[in-house]
Write a structure and sequence with these properties.
Layout: H1 3-6, H2 10-47, H3 51-85, H4 92-99, H5 102-152, E1 178-180, E2 184-188, E3 196-197, E4 200-202, E5 213-217, E6 223-225, E7 230-233, E8 237-245, E9 252-260, E10 265-269, E11 273-277, E12 283-286, E13 291-294, E14 310-313, E15 316-319, E16 325-330, H6 338-347, E17 356-361, E18 366-371, E19 378-384, H7 390-393, E20 402-412, E21 420-424, E22 432-437, E23 450-452, H8 454-462, H9 464-467, E24 471-474
Parallel strand pairs: 2-9, 17-24, 22-23
Antiparallel strand pairs: 1-4, 3-7, 5-8, 6-7, 8-9, 10-13, 10-16, 11-12, 11-15, 13-14, 14-15, 17-18, 18-19, 20-21, 20-24, 21-22
Length: 475
């Protein structure tokens, strides 16, 4: 930081201004005090005119007079030298002198605020660009998935459209009599995060009895809801729950719900099987070769990920045993929205030793980076990644569900052009399943590492000292 930069910092200038006022007080009060002491000495001479007293008092009067004159002239001499010698307006001392005023400090403080706002806006624009690039990559990945699906299924199979993931957020419904305490919820089809309740209040904030209202899911394949407002997730996606007053059915409200999925696979049914439709409640028979998207892994796939229990065939969601299907390829979900990822990490109470938190989302092949603190995390950056490919690498894929065991660990140069950042699993050594380069196209392909593109990995390395010890959720 050079001299001019220092003299444009409001906090530093405030300290200098206080020092300036303090010196002004000293240079004013000291001469006055010395003059008063001279007067006292003169009074002593008048009251006690003995020769020995007069001689000592006159000597002291002379010294104090000289001292008063010197103290009085010091700021005058300094100001003259300063203005005579330092004539360059860009000289750091000149800049400091001009800036040490209350008005200038206020002006610089306002400029600093504007600069910070501009930097925040620039960061928001970068995030928006990242989201747009992510969408483009998702489209290309989905084309590859579709190609793989067709390549691996050259025979005729039953089943319709197997697209899934997030669609446009449903428009929220509100009324003037009651409201829900939380209009957006994020759950996961996983034991730790698979339940949430809808709470209702009146316009004064008083809790209402859920038994006085009807709850209905707009898509029972994604979530179902009990008569008292308890939500149960089934399949990744976004939908809403409509709440209707039993006394006045015209009074309605809604809650938007996103279900986060650990991993999805495109599967084939091995042999004829019957399951229950979550949409209709009726039994549905699927023939061998029926194709769909599965909400987890088949029992024969790998340990460490939750087994699936529901297959999406066309627009229906059918519950079948995970022994009934075999995986063909991966199915990648759309990236989750900002409000929902924030709600997911905040509502589940994730904490971190630093002001950063990472979530490696296997289902959407995305690394979400948050900043803040427990209960107040805000999405900061988004990175497309590649995680473990268990379909081809089996248990060697390594990357599984880790909720509490990972933090950002050692930074190591492994000759990849960009340093590797290991995950600290508390087991000593370097760690495990590191962040490294060689990915970023949004499809499982590694042996357990989380692979970023080069630019994103360079960024993480550049902020390593800030993110080390940050918590990482692998889910």
């Amino acid at each position: 930081m050079d001299g001019i930069t220092i003299c444009e910092e409001p906090h530093i200038l405030s300290v200098l201004l206080i020092m300036k006022y303090a010196l002004q007080i000293v240079f004013t009060l000291v001469p006055i005090i010395l003059i008063i002491l001279v007067i006292v000495d003169l009074f002593k001479i008048v009251m006690n005119p003995k020769k020995e007293n007069v001689s000592g008092s006159i000597s002291m009067i002379g010294k104090r007079t000289v001292a008063a004159i010197i103290v009085f002239l010091i700021p005058v001499i300094i100001n003259y030298v300063f203005t005579s010698i330092i004539t360059n307006s860009e000289n750091p001392l000149k800049v400091c002198a001009n800036n040490i005023s209350l008005e200038r400090i206020k002006e610089l403080t306002e400029l600093q605020k504007q600069k910070l706002e501009a930097e925040k806006e620039k960061e928001r624009q970068k995030m928006q660009e990242a989201l747009e690039k992510r969408k483009e990559k998702e489209d290309s990945v989905n084309e590859v998935i579709q190609g793989n699906r067709e390549e691996n299924n050259s025979e005729e199979v039953e089943g319709g459209d197997t697209t899934f993931g997030q669609v446009a957020e449903p428009e929220l419904i509100v009324n003037n009599e009651f409201k829900v305490t939380k209009q957006r919820l994020a759950l996961a089809n996983y034991t730790s995060f698979n339940k949430a309740s809808i709470s209702l209040v009146d316009n004064r904030g008083n809790a209402l009895n859920p038994n006085d209202y009807n709850f209905e899911s707009s898509n029972k394949g994604i979530v179902t809801v009990t008569k008292d407002g308890v939500i149960k997730p089934h399949f990744g996606g976004i939908t809403n729950i409509i709440i209707t007053s039993k006394d006045d059915p015209s009074k309605k409200a809604s809650v938007n719900v996103t279900v986060v999925q650990t991993i999805y696979t495109n599967v084939k049914v091995l042999s004829k099987v019957t399951g229950n439709s979550l949409i209709t409640g009726n039994s549905v028979t699927l023939n061998a070769g029926t194709q769909g998207v599965y909400n987890g892994v088949a029992k024969s796939s790998i340990k460490g990920y939750p087994y699936g229990d529901t297959i999406k065939v066309g627009n229906d969601y059918i519950q079948i045993n995970n022994n009934s299907v075999t995986p063909v390829s991966y199915a990648i979900s759309s990236m989750y929205g900002k409000e929902y990822v924030e709600d997911f990490v905040n509502s589940n109470g994730f904490d971190s030793k630093t002001k950063y938190l990472f979530w490696t989302s296997h289902g959407s092949q995305t690394e979400y980076m948050f900043t803040g603190s427990k209960g107040n995390w805000r999405l900061y950056k988004v990175f497309p990644v590649n995680t473990g490919d268990f379909l081809h690498n089996g248990d060697n894929a390594g990357t599984k569900v880790h909720i509490n065991s990972y933090t950002v660990g050692r930074r190591v140069n492994e000759g990849l052009g960009v340093d590797v950042i290991y995950k600290n699993n508390g087991g000593g050594g370097r760690g495990s399943n590191p962040f490294h380069v060689g990915g970023g196209n949004g499809s499982p392909s590694t042996h357990g590492c989380t692979a970023f593109n080069a630019e994103d990995m360079k960024y993480l390395v550049s902020v390593y000292s800030d993110i080390v010890d940050s918590r990482i959720i692998d889910f």
